[in-house]
């Protein structure tokens, strides 16, 4: 319990930034018209490439015996890749609506 309190005390600024970013994200998404939700979310999914790069960096710096960190990194790479591919698929499908029919 003391370790948790010490961790929170040492990282209180990061916790504040996390909470503030949650509130800002909710406000930004809440103000977007429903017509634009699909392109906004597909773009946000494409940004998950950062998650893929970050998880690969974490996996490269992990010890070979740390199976928990390696497995979490692997899961992050797989889920981030699925999210990126899904974002591009949704964007491509959305753009098909705007093409002229022959």
Report on the architecture of this protein.
This protein is mostly helical and 102 residues long. The chain folds into 2 domains: 1-31; 35-102. Helix content is 79%, strand content 0%. It has 5 helices and no strands. It has helices at 2-10, 12-30, 37-46, 49-61, 67-96. Helix 3 (37-46) packs antiparallel against helix 5 and helix 4 (49-61) runs antiparallel to helix 5 (67-96). The relative contact order is 0.11. The mean pLDDT is 84.
Distance between the termini: 67 Å
Report the C-alpha radius of gyration, rounded: 19 Å
Poorly predicted runs are none
What is the average per-residue confidence, as pLDDT, rounded to a whole number? 84
Mass-distribution shape = flat
**Got a strand count?**
0
Report the total helices: 5
Q: Tell me the number of structural domains.
A: 2
Instruction: Give the H and E element order.
Output: HHHHH
Helix content: over 70%
- Largest sheet features: none
Q: Structural class of the helices, strands and pairings?
A: mainly alpha
Topology, please?
Layout: H1 2-10, H2 12-30, H3 37-46, H4 49-61, H5 67-96
């Amino acid at each position: 319990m003391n370790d948790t309190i010490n961790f929170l005390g040492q990282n209180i600024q990061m916790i504040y930034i996390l909470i503030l970013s949650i509130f800002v994200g909710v406000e930004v998404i809440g103000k977007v018209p429903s017509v634009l939700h699909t392109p906004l979310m597909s773009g946000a999914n494409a940004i998950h490439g950062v998650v893929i790069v970050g998880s690969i960096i974490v996996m490269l710096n992990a010890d070979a015996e740390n199976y928990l960190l390696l497995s979490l990194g692997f899961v992050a790479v797989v889920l981030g890749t699925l999210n990126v591919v899904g974002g591009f698929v949704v964007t491509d499908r959305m753009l098909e609506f705007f093409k002229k029919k022959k």
